[in-house]
Amino acid sequence: MNSPDTLVTSRPKRIFPKTTGLTALWRHRQTLRVLVQRDLAVKYQKTVMGYFWSLLEPMGLATIYWFVFGVVMQVGARGDSALEHVDYSLYIVSGIFAWMWASSAISEATTCLTSQSSLITTMKVPREVFPVARVVARFAEFLAGIPIIVIFALLGRGISAGTFGWNLLLLFPAVALQAVLLTGLAFILASLNVLYRDVQRFMRLVTRILFYAVPSIYPLALVLKSDNLPEWAKSIYLANPFVVIVEIHHEAWIPGLNNLTWQMITTSVAISVFLLFFGRWMFHRLEPMVLKEL
User: Fold this and answer.
1) Cα 118 to Cα 102, 112, 132, 246, 283, distances in angstroms
2) What range does the domain containing 201 cover?
């Protein structure tokens, strides 16, 4: 029989899963579905227009930027030559809806743990479900906006410009890549914000800067062909994976842009996948401290 002096008590070592948690998410897909439905229901409860609010904001922004950049500044007329054959409003609407998914997902995923602390500490589910649920919920709002983009294409010159062709298949890689990037960022920001509440305030500024740092309302060609920007500034700009993602969204609706290179796409994919794995690893490492703080 071992004496008390020989007994060693230690906390079991936490082992990082070799996957990104997709298996666990699949096992708890019903919980994920319920969280997404709950998020959408709570967000629009006691409102007359309901889910229409998810369309009103991007449509309002698109109208404002179309007037400022398209009518007043004539950006579409002196930007990428491909925009001469398509209404500039279609370019802005497709970019705005793509960016609103990113912006709202980043903002709400950052606070998803602190705003649901009692639920997180009582439910026996992988905590990764909560930030992922915010990304999926905002994706549902993005899907609701696709008919609006189709209407803009039909009312404009989308049919004659070849909008409704094989190029629409680019929406699938655009959505997949954006989901990977947003999920990785959600893991990182959600866990860090529990420990440092400055993160949510800082991200408000970052998302505003990022909005103008991606070609959602102006043609990417204006940046690529600009003589006022040094090459190192262009390299930093193109290192932002959101630039490629938003441009793929544009190319899905507007064929003929051809501003992307395989190097740009590969860089964006590599950064997005890295952030997914790194975010999952960071979430796993910080989880004990996060739960203690909650």
Assistant:
1) 27, 12, 18, 36, 18
2) 22-36+49-216+230-293
